[in-house]
């Protein structure tokens, strides 16, 4: 019987180099993928923060509009005791040029106090349903005639 002796062949230098390049390339792809995921998460967080800041700014603007409307209602009522309501539209050009605002003012007499009126204002900025900040305020004013 012939016995053959098999010896384990060592991989060639080219095969070893090729495997190393493949491993380095794989590690590089994994690093790029992880960096991309991190950048996407940072970008999403930045967009969310920007939206929050925009919403806060719109809420603040609507609050100031409501305060102004209360003062406007008191002045209108003092100048004209028959004044009862108004819809006050503010064009976009008076803000950032992109969104108008609308403020509704309503005066109603208080039933058990004949010289007192309730002023109710609703300020919407911007004046669209999707991104609107709405602020409502009330005060009581008296008819001092």
Describe the secondary structure blueprint for this structure.
Elements lengths: L12 H67 L5 E6 L10 E10 L2 E13 L7 E10 L3
Antiparallel strand pairs: 1-2, 2-3, 3-4
Written overview of the protein:
Helices cover 46% and strands 27% of the residues. It is of the alpha+beta class. The protein has a 4-stranded antiparallel beta sheet. A hairpin with a 2-residue loop joins strand 2 (101-110) and strand 3. The model has no long low-confidence stretch (mean pLDDT 89).
Contiguous helical run count: 1
Secondary-structure element order, as H and E?
HEEEE
* Overall morphology: rod-shaped
Strand content: 25-35%
Q: What is the CA-atom radius of gyration, in angstroms? A: 35 Å
Distance between the termini: 132 Å
Structural class: alpha+beta
Write down the overall mean pLDDT: 89
Q: Would you identify the regions where 5 or more consecutive residues have pLDDT less than 50? A: none
Strand order of the largest sheet: 1-2-3-4
Which features would summarize this protein structure in a list?
145 residues, alpha+beta, 46% helix, 27% strand, rod-shaped
Can I get a quick summary?
By secondary structure, the protein is α+β, with helices and mostly antiparallel strands. 46% of the residues lie in helices and 27% in strands.
